[in-house]
Design brief:
The structure holds three protein chains of three kinds.
Chain A lengths: L1 H13 L9 H27 L4 H16 L2 H16 L5 H27 L2 H9 L4 H16 L1 H14 L11 H12 L3 H37 L1
Helix pairs in contact in A: 1-2, 1-9, 2-5, 2-8, 2-9, 3-5, 4-5, 5-7, 5-8, 6-7, 8-10, 9-10
Chain B lengths: L6 H4 L2 H35 L4 H15 L3 H15 L2 H9 L2 H28 L2 H9 L4 H31 L11 H12 L2 H29 L6
Helix pairs in contact in B: 2-3, 2-6, 2-8, 2-9, 3-6, 4-6, 6-8, 7-8, 8-10, 9-10
Chain C lengths: L1 E10 L2 E11 L4 E5 L6 H7 L8 E6 L2 E2 L7 H6 L1 E4 L11 H11 L5 H14 L15 H13 L5 E5 L7 H16 L3 E5 L3 H7 L2 E6 L2 E6 L1 H6 L4 H12 L1
Parallel strand pairs in C: 3-8, 3-9, 6-7, 7-8
Antiparallel strand pairs in C: 1-2, 1-4, 4-5, 9-10
Helix pairs in contact in C: 3-4, 3-5, 4-5, 5-6
Classes of the chains: A mainly alpha, B mainly alpha, C alpha/beta.
C-alpha cells in the first residue's frame, strides 16, 4: 500500500499537471470551491425571491427550484455536456461543463438555505427595521441577510461537502477528477484494487468529514451565542 | 432527419432499451429502499442506544459511508470487493448480474445511512417519557423500541424519509458508472448508436421528473393526513 | 396630533377594532390598557402601519397615513416604535443599533449619528455599554437601548407596545424610569401597558379597551378612583387582587 502511495501520490493529487490539464484531488477541491463561490450570488437572489412578498417572484423561482431538485445531477450533466456545444457552437471542456452544472445545483440548494434562514428569523427583526423607516431592500440588506448568512454558515459548509461529492460524477464524462484518477491507477496496477479504492475512500472521508466537523462546530458556536442572548 | 422524433420512443429497439433501463432503475430503487430502511432503522437505534460502544459504532458507520461519494462506493463494490471474496463466491457474483448486485449494495448502504439520520431525528422527536411508560408497563428494551418508539419515530421521520427516497431514485442513475444497464446507461447507449440524443434524454427527464414528483406528492399528502401531533 | 376616525379592522370574521374615533394631542401621554385580546396592540400597530385598517381614517398631523401613495418608510421614520420583545439587531453593537437608521436614511453623517447615539445611550444610562452586543445585555438594558434606537430618528411621537411585559420584575423599573423622563420632556407618547403605577403617575389620559372598543377614557385620577364602565371596574378589581 505504501509503495502504491509512494509511486502515485502526485498523479493522485494533480493528475497529469503540468504535462496535461489539472486533475486529481486538487481539481476536485478547486472545482467545488469555485462552484460554491460562483453560486453564492445567484443562490442569494433566488433565496430572496423565494420568500418575496410578490407572487410573481415567488412562484417561478419555486418551480425552478423544485424542477432542479427533482432531476438527477447526472442527467443535467449529460444534457449540458451533449447539448451545450451544439447550442453555443463552442466546445466546452469537461471541467467547464462540470462547473456549470455544479453552479446550477449549488445555487438552487443555497437558495433553499437562504430562504429557510430568512423564514427562521423572528418576525420582530424585520418589523423593527421597517419601524425605523428602513425600506424593504434596506431591511433585507442591513438586518435580515447579515443574520441569515451567519446562521446559515453551517449549512453552507455542508453544501460544500455535497459539492465535493458531486464532482465525482465528472468521472462519467471523462473529467480527470480524483475518482477517475483512482480508476486509472487501478488499471495500471491492476492487482491492488482494494488498496486503491480504500485510499480513495479515505481521501474523501478526511476531506468531507473534516469539513462537516467544522460545520458542526460552527453550529455549536452559533447556538451558544443564541443561548447567551436569551 | 427531424429534430425531435417521438416515434422512436413509442416502439422499436430504442424504445425497448429505454424501457428496460427504466425498469432496472425502478428495480434498483425499490430493492435498495427495502433493504436500506431496516438497515437505517438499525443504525439509528444504535446511535441512540444507551451503550456507548454501540453509539460509537453507529456513528462510525454513518460518517464512514456518508462522507464518501456514491460513485466511489460503486467503484469499490464493483472493482475492489470481489477481490476480497473467495473464488467460488466471486464466480457466483459475476454469473449473476454483478453490476446490479454491487449497485444495490452501494445504494443500500449509502441511502441507508441517510435514512438512519432521518430516523434518528424522528426518534429524538419522540418524548423520552414514551419509552419510560413502555418500560413501566414491563416491556423489555427491545420490545419498547419496536412497539412504542420506532412506530412514532417513523411517523415523524416520514417526510424526510420520502425526500430521501427521491434522492435514492435520482442516485440510481450513478450506477451507470459500473455498467448497470439502468436508464442513464441506456440513454447513453441510444445516443452512441443513433445520435438521437434529444428524444432519449427527454424520455429520461420525464421519467425522473414523474417519479420524483409522485413521491413528493405522496409526502405532501402524508403530511396532510398525518399531521405531526404532539401528546 | 393623531386623529382616529371610525377606524375598523377585521381579521377574517373577527372584528378586532370597532369604530374607533379618538384623538391624541401633542405632548400628551396616553396609556392604553385592557385585558388580553382587547385590541390594544392592534390599535397601536395601525398607527405606524405595521397593521392595515379596513375602514376609517387615521391622520397624523392632518395627513391620512393609510392613504394610497403615502411613503410608508418616511412615515415610520417619523414615529418611534418600541416592541415588547425589544428586537435589537444582534449582529450590531448597542451604538451601531442606534446609528443604523439615521445613517442609512441620510438623516446624519456617521460622526453626527455616532455623537447623537452616544448622547441618547447616555440619556438611558447605558453609555458605558455602547460597544456591547445585545446578547451581552440584560432584558432591561436591551429595552433601554431599543428606546434610544427609536429616539435616534428624533421622532415627534413615540409608541410603546407593552415595553415591560417581557422583562423580569426587577428590570421593569429601569425602563419605566426612561419612559417617565421622556414624558417629562414633553414627548407625545402612546403606551400599551399593564403597569398601572406608571399609568397613574405619568399618563395624561387612559383609554380602557375591551373587545376592540374603547370602553372608557378618563384621566388617571378619574379612572382609578371612579371607573364608570363595568368592565373597567372588573379589570381594576382583578389588578388590585394581584
Amino acid at each position: 500500500m505504501l509503495e502504491l502511495i509512494d509511486t502515485y501520490w502526485l498523479y493522485f493529487l494533480v493528475g497529469q499537471y503540468p504535462a496535461g490539464p489539472l486533475g486529481g484531488l486538487v481539481l476536485t477541491v478547486l472545482l467545488s470551491g469555485a462552484a460554491l463561490v460562483l453560486a453564492m450570488p445567484l443562490g442569494l437572489m433566488l433565496g430572496i425571491a423565494r420568500v418575496s412578498p410578490y407572487r410573481l417572484l415567488r412562484w417561478p423561482t419555486g418551480v425552478v427550484v423544485q424542477l432542479v431538485r427533482a432531476l438527477p445531477l447526472l442527467l443535467v450533466l449529460f444534457w449540458v455536456y451533449f447539448f451545450l456545444p451544439a447550442l453555443t457552437g463552442v466546445k466546452t471542456s469537461q471541467a467547464s461543463t462540470m462547473l456549470i452544472v455544479l453552479v446550477l445545483f449549488d445555487s438552487v440548494y443555497l437558495a433553499e438555505i437562504v430562504a429557510a434562514g430568512i423564514r427562521a428569523l423572528p418576525k420582530g427583526q424585520f418589523e423593527s427595521a421597517r419601524s425605523l423607516g428602513l425600506s424593504y431592500p434596506q431591511a433585507l440588506r442591513l438586518v435580515v441577510l447579515p443574520q441569515t448568512l451567519r446562521s446559515g454558515l453551517p449549512s453552507i459548509v455542508n453544501q460544500l461537502v455535497s459539492t465535493i461529492k458531486a464532482t465525482s460524477l465528472g468521472y462519467i464524462i471523462g473529467l480527470s477528477e480524483v475518482s477517475f484518477i483512482a480508476t486509472q491507477i487501478n488499471t495500471l496496477v491492476f492487482t491492488h484494487a482494494v488498496e486503491v479504492y480504500l485510499v480513495l475512500a479515505l481521501t474523501y472521508f478526511i476531506l468531507c468529514f473534516g469539513l462537516s466537523r467544522l460545520a458542526f462546530l460552527l453550529e455549536r458556536r452559533l447556538q451558544r451565542r443564541a443561548m447567551a442572548a436569551s | 432527419m427531424q429534430f425531435f422524433d417521438p416515434t422512436i420512443l413509442q416502439s422499436g429497439q430504442y424504445h425497448d432499451w429505454l424501457v428496460q433501463g427504466l425498469i432496472l432503475s425502478l428495480q434498483l430503487t425499490g430493492i435498495s429502499f427495502a433493504l436500506a430502511l431496516p438497515f437505517g432503522a438499525l443504525v439509528a437505534v444504535m446511535r441512540t442506544s444507551t451503550s456507548a460502544p454501540l453509539r460509537a459504532l453507529g456513528a462510525t458507520i454513518v460518517e464512514g459511508i456518508r462522507n464518501v461519494p456514491l460513485l466511489a462506493h460503486l467503484l469499490f463494490w464493483y472493482f475492489a470487493f470481489p477481490e476480497l471474496l473467495p473464488e467460488a463466491a466471486r464466480e457466483l457474483l459475476y454469473a449473476n448480474n454483478a453490476e446490479a448486485v454491487c449497485a444495490v449494495i452501494a445504494l443500500t448502504l449509502y441511502s441507508g445511512v441517510h435514512m438512519a439520520e432521518d430516523i434518528r431525528s424522528g426518534i429524538r422527536a419522540v418524548p423520552a417519557t414514551q419509552l419510560e411508560a413502555a418500560r413501566s408497563l414491563g416491556l423489555g428494551r427491545a420490545a419498547s423500541v419496536r412497539l412504542v418508539l420506532l412506530p412514532q419515530a417513523l411517523r415523524a421521520a416520514t417526510p424526510p424519509l420520502l425526500s430521501q427516497t427521491v434522492n435514492l431514485w435520482k442516485d440510481s442513475s450513478v450506477a451507470t458508472v459500473i455498467g448497470a444497464a439502468e436508464m442513464m446507461y441506456q440513454v447513453a447507449r441510444v445516443e452512441t448508436d443513433s445520435f438521437r440524443s434529444v428524444e432519449a434524454f427527454t424520455f429520461a427527464t420525464l421519467a425522473y421528473l414523474t417519479v420524483s414528483l409522485l413521491i413528493a406528492l405522496a409526502a405532501h399528502l402524508y403530511g396532510r393526513r398525518y399531521p405531526v401531533r404532539t401528546a | 396630533m393623531i386623529h382616529l376616525d371610525k377606524v375598523n379592522k377585521f381579521y377574517g370574521d373577527y372584528h378586532a377594532l370597532v369604530d374607533i374615533s379618538e384623538q391624541v394631542a401633542k405632548n400628551e401621554v396616553l396609556v392604553v390598557c385592557g385585558p388580553s385580546g382587547s385590541g390594544k396592540s392592534t390599535l397601536i400597530r395601525t398607527l405606524n402601519r405595521l397593521e392595515d385598517i379596513d375602514s376609517g381614517r387615521i391622520a397624523i398631523d392632518g395627513r391620512d397615513i393609510h392613504a394610497k401613495g403615502v411613503d410608508v418608510n418616511l412615515l415610520r421614520a417619523g414615529i418611534g416604535f418600541v416592541f415588547q420583545s425589544f428586537n435589537l439587531f444582534p449582529h450590531l453593537t448597542a451604538l451601531e443599533n442606534c446609528m443604523l437608521a439615521p445613517v442609512q436614511l441620510k438623516r446624519a453623517s456617521r460622526q453626527e449619528a455616532r455623537a447623537q447615539a452616544m448622547q441618547l445611550l447616555e440619556q438611558v444610562g447605558l453609555a458605558h455599554k455602547h460597544d456591547a452586543y445585545p446578547n451581552a445585555l440584560s432584558g432591561g438594558q436591551q429595552q433601554r437601548v431599543a428606546i434610544a434606537r427609536a429616539l435616534a430618528m428624533r421622532p415627534p411621537i413615540m409608541l410603546f407596545d407593552e415595553p415591560t411585559s417581557a422583562l423580569d420584575p426587577e428590570m421593569v423599573g429601569e425602563v419605566l424610569g426612561v419612559m417617565r423622563s421622556l414624558a417629562q420632556q414633553g414627548m407625545t407618547m402612546v403606551c400599551v401597558t399593564h403597569e398601572m403605577g406608571f399609568a397613574r403617575d405619568v399618563a395624561d389620559r387612559i383609554w380602557f379597551m375591551a373587545e376592540g372598543k374603547i370602553l372608557e377614557k378618563a384621566t388617571p385620577e378619574e379612572f382609578f378612583t371612579r371607573p364608570q364602565h363595568r368592565r373597567a371596574q372588573q379589570f381594576l378589581a382583578d389588578r388590585r387582587r394581584d
